[in-house]
Amino acid sequence: xxxxxxxxxxxxWHLMEPNxxxxxxxxxxxxxxxxxxxxRREKYGLNELREEKKISRPxxxxxxxxxxxxxxxxxxxxISAAIGxxxxxxxxxxAVLLVVTLGFFFEYRSEKAIxxxxxxAAPTAHVLREGTEVKIPSKEIxxxxxxxxxxxxxxxxxxxxxxxxxxxxxxxxxTGESTAVNKDVSVLTGDVILAERTNMVYSGTTVLHxxxxxxxxxxxxxxxxxxxxxxxxxxxxEETPLKRRINEIxxxxxxxxxxxxxxxxxxxxxxxxxxxxxxxxxxxxxxxIVPETLPLVITGTLAVxxxxxxxxxxxxxxxxxxxxxxxxxAICSDKTGTLTKNEMTVRRVYAGGKLIEVTGAGxxxxxxxxxxxxxxxxxxxxxxxxxxxxQIATLCTDSRLRMVDGGYKVSGSPTEGAxxxxxxxxxxxxxxxxxxxxxxxxxxxxxxxxxxTTVHHDFVEGKEVAYxxxxxxxxxxxxxxxxxxxxxxxxxxxxxxxxxxxxxxxMAAEALRVIAVAYRELxxxxxxxYTTEGVEKDLVFVGLFGMTDPPREEVKxxxxxxxxxxxxPIMITGDHKLTALAIADELGxxxxxxxxxxxxxxxxxxxxxxxxxxxxxxxxxxxxxxxPAHKLRIVESLTRRGHVVAMxxxxxxxxxxxxxSDIGIGMNSGTDVAKxxxxxxxxxxxxxxxxxxIHEGRGIYDNMxxxxxxxxxxSFAEVCLLTGAFFFGLFLLGEPLFPLIAIQILWANxxxxxxxxxxxxxDPPDPDIMERKPRDPNEGIFTKRMLxxxxxxxAVIFIGCLVIFLKYLPEYGMGHIGDDVLxxxxxxxxxxxxxxxxxxxxxxxxxxxxxxxxGVFSNKWLIFGVLCSLLLMVFAIQIPVTxxxxxxxxxxxxxxGIALATSITxxxxxxxxxxxxxxxxxxxxxxxxKEN
Length: 932
Fold this sequence. Notes:
Layout: H1 5-8, H2 18-24, H3 34-44, H4 57-63, H5 68-82, H6 86-120, E1 124-129, E2 132-137, E3 146-150, E4 158-170, H7 172-175, E5 181-182, E6 200-201, E7 206-218, H8 241-270, H9 275-289, H10 294-311, E8 314-316, H11 320-325, E9 330-334, E10 345-351, E11 354-358, E12 369-371, E13 377-378, H12 384-395, E14 400-404, E15 407-411, H13 414-425, H14 430-436, E16 437-446, E17 451-458, E18 463-470, H15 472-478, E19 479-484, E20 488-491, H16 494-509, E21 512-522, H17 532-535, E22 539-548, H18 555-564, E23 568-572, H19 577-587, E24 599-601, H20 602-607, H21 610-616, E25 622-624, H22 628-640, E26 645-649, H23 655-660, E27 663-667, H24 672-677, E28 680-682, H25 687-732, H26 742-752, H27 754-760, H28 784-807, H29 819-843, H30 851-854, H31 860-877, H32 880-886, H33 893-920
Parallel strand pairs: 9-23, 9-26, 19-22, 23-25, 24-25, 26-27, 27-28
Antiparallel strand pairs: 1-2, 1-3, 3-7, 4-5, 4-6, 4-7, 8-28, 10-11, 10-22, 11-12, 12-13, 14-15, 16-17, 17-18, 18-21, 19-20, 21-22
């Protein structure tokens, strides 16, 4: 009978042998099958600490009725129907339903967009399934999965360790202990507290060093972290700075508008207007002009905008990052894989005192070896030093070369992959070497150490040997001897050290990344002392490998776009100074003539005080041989000089710099820790994507301001028009005038105007958006230019509608105004006001540029929204049956001509204002940073 998994879920996995755990969980070292994974997921559910709140459409829809003004309007409408005004009540109720539906659409779209962002930014894990390593969302892990553990991984489930190499875990989120825990596979005995279970790893903790494998024992709420909801690593629905400011503005405007509406209600009732009619009119005005939905629209615009960014391979994890993108003044970018292709190919080898050129391209293990002194082809098998160098290079790596779909692919680091390929070109197969030289120990690569060491047992000679690869200057420092063809091992003299460093500099100047290799035979008593102090000393230097990593073709143009946009590109690399300068020169990051002032090394940084670094940081464009700790110093110095900094990173130790920067940019191929510390993750690791994200971020911010200008311009104008006419009639005619009635107000503002607004939210950016200086992060929402434009738009709409209203009231000031005349005048104002809104939607598309430059037809969604709005306007005016509901009368061709001619004045006025303001540049934007 098969064991039951439920019965086997216990808390004593740490007391069991690894093989017993594997058998108890009905799995194997190769992992689960697809069918078994499906069965277990159905049984145990997703690996989540809490079930994500689902988007309920009915809940969102009915939440729209929580608006106090909507509730009051519904009550007033019910009263109106009760006293016999059924037609008016029905039309106003229909308008309210349309308003609620539009609000539902905005909120539901925003919720879906934010949920999609969370899923895109969700944490991932590597597991073995059916013998193959696969990368899956962490929530898809099931009990019995074989979890692969690597430095920087956020552990996704509880697991029993059954294989490890120097595995160290940070369990402070679970235990509170800051000391890293060394993990092993041994069986524990007795009562062992959680913090001392060294053969277990737990969900929510982080791998600091080494690597390992574990069989998953618990997922989701069954993990030790099951009662703590901390796994969500997605796009948070936090209030962005802009949204907070808009909320504040909305509150002030709401108080101001409600005060006006209340005053008008009291005066209207005192002047003899029926209370219910006056109440519905004032509430309709309040519903129309109070910016209740403004924050919702802003969130929707942000969410949809960042979805567009995700399609361009930039996943925004925090909505606030979108605003900051437009303020970026410096981008600190890693070189490898971001500025370059990360497709390494060995071009030079130095061993046995000879410099060899290697031919061939890509990962295909074919090519020749040429002696650079005479250009003759050589057989690498005839050189003992070359063979030893290739042997070290291929064994001291974790990468493998495989044939996939008819082509060669590297699994693992491209740098290590290039070493495996060149060794195979020389006839050395990794699998064959590993049969004789079994790895028995390892000291993993770390950026601070700049080297990696593996220890191997030689089954033929019965000895153990340590193989080391790393930065040439580091490996040379650890070496006391050198291997030479025919001469064997000799002492490493000062002259030979200089020769090796000169070869290193020559390769670096040719933009080659240089890796050194060395070895040491270990005495018997040191077989278990696989530590830095016990192994990495008294090395025998063997040779150098110079490999090329070609720059991405598109990056040079992206860097030029950065400079035009007022953004300083900075390259950060662990490569040699000369290699870094050569690549920076090729990409256009530094200008000729090249100077030492353009580049700083990690050693230079360590010698500098904070004040010294701050004094020259604006002049430095390249940092070489730096560690993650140096990155933090660079960010802090740039920040103190007034920069808004974007910093890339992929390693676990990059997290402090990513958090300290204004925009931390993680890499999809990087560690979970780096991604969780970042504000944005690049799925393609490409510098061009950063520039595209800045372009998109600037556009999203502009679109939010466009919507703000559009909405506030007509709400200001409407307040001025309705209150102005009210008091004009009250004081001059003895009774208030109403240019628009309640249903017309609702229809014009809440039904018709929202359609173009949605088009503005996805408007294409200005053509010169990447030629502007970065936005000052302390800049208010309303710039001087924006305020001028807002005042002009509101004034033109107000004056135009008021003139139309008075023009169609020939007997104003001569006693009581006839109902037919008033209805005609209100219809003209209704039509003119809507036409103003439609034309002004096109005006709002750019704060600086003429509509002719932006392109009348470049936003198809805006055109669609305007056409729909115009149809709704005609529906309310020209059809007699519907006109009766909206209290309108059909207009003649002349009337439409007058309304259109009047509304076009806003296009003329804004176009003239843009031309004049651009000519005189009265609002010329100042650079955020002072020039040195």
